[in-house]
Amino acid sequence: MQSPAVPPPSSPVSPSPSGPSGPSGPSGPSGVVTPVRVGVVLGVASVVLLALVAAKWGPLLSLDRSIAVDLHRQAVADRGLTHANRILTDWVWDPWTMRLLTAVAFFVLWFRGARLLACWVALTSLVGALISQGVKSAVGRQRPSWPDPVDSAHYAAFPSGHAMTATVTIGMLLWVLRRHGLSGPLWRVLLVVGVVSVIGVGFTRLWLGVHWSSDVVAGWLFGACLVALSIATYEGRALSRWR
After folding, report:
1. pLDDT digits (tens, 9 = 90+) for 111-167
2. Which among 108, 140, 138 has a CA at the least distance from the CA of 122?
């Protein structure tokens, strides 16, 4: 009598493409998807705010006016704090100071051999300046006007060039430092300094009465959107093509 055939042992199951080694696992593009999503959300918020300002939406304009009037009253009364804000906005957080930081980062990266990254940081800064000036020209929003101004500014108001330039510059520099392995207490200190600087420059523009609050928020949104999309593009496209 012939014994029944024994079935061969089943072969090991191959890992699913969607498992840990697949696209959604650690080796997948999760590090690229996150900046893209953040950039898209920030981009939508920027466009919505732009539309509300262009349409002169009443509630937004009223809020802008209320904040501006309250801060201007305090700025006129406290000349010492106003002078400090002028120093911060004209020297510490001025767009040209931010561009100087970008230039320093460019040369450091270039001479250390990270030439693609150096050019990418510079290009992102240039694109930010072009977007800022383009939107200013397209919207043509008037700045606040006061009978007793404590400071003055030129060009259109929306978005705040100070806020946007600081956001782009500091965002890109923090990303570069993190990408090169900076961590620990020094990273946390620089992160806090960066956040304080971005928020602080926006406050100086409001305190000095040269911007509406929505101008500053728009500068933050446009700047952060550009940083997120720049990082995503570099990590997902530019770096792989360069290699």
Report:
1. 999 999 999 999 999 999 999 999 999 999 999 999 999 999 989 999 999 999 999
2. 108
